[in-house]
Amino acid sequence: MGKVCGSTSSRPSARLARALGLVAPLLLLAAAGCDLQVGDGRKATLTYTDDARSAYEEAMRSYRSKAWEDARALFAEVRKLFPYSRYATLAELRIADVEFEQEKYADAVSAYREFIQNHRTDRDVEYARYRIAKSLFRDIDDTFLLPPQEERDQGTALEAYRELGAFLRDNPRSRYAEDVRKMHDAVQGRLMRHELYVARFYLRQDVYPATIARIDHALKLFPGSALEPEALVLKGETLMRMNKPDEARVVFKKVLDEYGGPFAVTAKRFLSELDAQKAANKQGT
């Protein structure tokens, strides 16, 4: 060899040490600009791209075997030693994937967003945005140890809803669109249930204007939700309690005409009550 390349002082795990043992010659040659001499006197130079590919593939072997810390360290080496290669960009994205696979969703979101910031025109920006949305979705904790989901803070759910909606608007034909749409519908349902929970709380307190305002806010904020008929029936019931039968009738008829299903049955029952009350009022006059 034309040059003697230095060694590192890090103390990796046994698995990582073996991996670095395979790629170290490539990494060290690339870092120091070493040339390789062959027996016939001709000089063979390890190409930058080939070195980067070899180092990246070695990191991917650790990634696929779920040796997350080893993979993270090897991807970091690729970024450090081959910063101008495509593989450095891929390694940056894979480091975010490592966070995601370890269920460190907040860290994953930060890493994916940093990737997008650094590579705005990269073809993998769509993938990074998808993973941000999925990370936020998975970060919505529904464990049985916590209060019912409608009673919890909805900050993460709302952030996920916005991110999922933005992805669908910007990438309607994406290969990830179907999965994103399912997550979007699930989060929308959760947020709508929360709004209805709050509305029912106001209703139990006989604070009717606040009940109506909360329902209207939910219908405006989450259009197309599967819980719309339930929200409308609740609104109609509140209007009845406010002694606004004509407005309540309009709401119940909307449920009958546009939705059907079990809440249409409830709406029909309320309409029958309104008709009976109207007939009783006429008899009394």
Automatic annotation (TrEMBL):
InterPro entries: BamD, BamD-like, TPR-like_helical_dom_sf. The keyword Ribosomal protein does not apply. The keyword Signal applies. Residues 1-30 form the signal peptide. Keywords: Cell outer membrane, Membrane, Signal. It comes from the Bacteria. Residues 51-248 form the Outer membrane lipoprotein BamD-like domain. PROSITE patterns: PROKAR_LIPOPROTEIN. This is Tetratricopeptide repeat protein. It comes from Polyangium jinanense.
